[in-house]
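Morning run. Coffee first, then this:
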Amino acid sequence: MPRQFRSDDTSIWEEGFGNGSDGAFTISTNTTQNPTDAACTGTSGSTTLTATNAGFGAGQNILIHQTKGTGMGNYELNVIASYTAGTITLKYPLQNTYVTGAQTIVMGNFTDATINTGVTSVK
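And here it is:
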């Protein structure tokens, strides 16, 4: 069963849904976003996740999702405590095991989001 989170469920997800640390986000022209993401693997109960992307950094909130394969559909949120040479050290132990076919992506912590008039393509 996928791990579920609610904004009022502080006993499980102390981080809430962001702290605004990335400031305001404005899209002023047609654009393609390039999120920090990577394929990943990790074992339930562990606080490490194998994933390679030099853009990962301490304090970032991440979504971990088993996109295909064993456990498909499982996901959870976590926080990066540190990142070194292909290993993400997590603030919280993993609730699920993630195998080949899993991926992780950094979630932005914006105070506000604006898409300017005339923008027709945001990918």
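The longest strand covers residues 75-84. Good start to the day.
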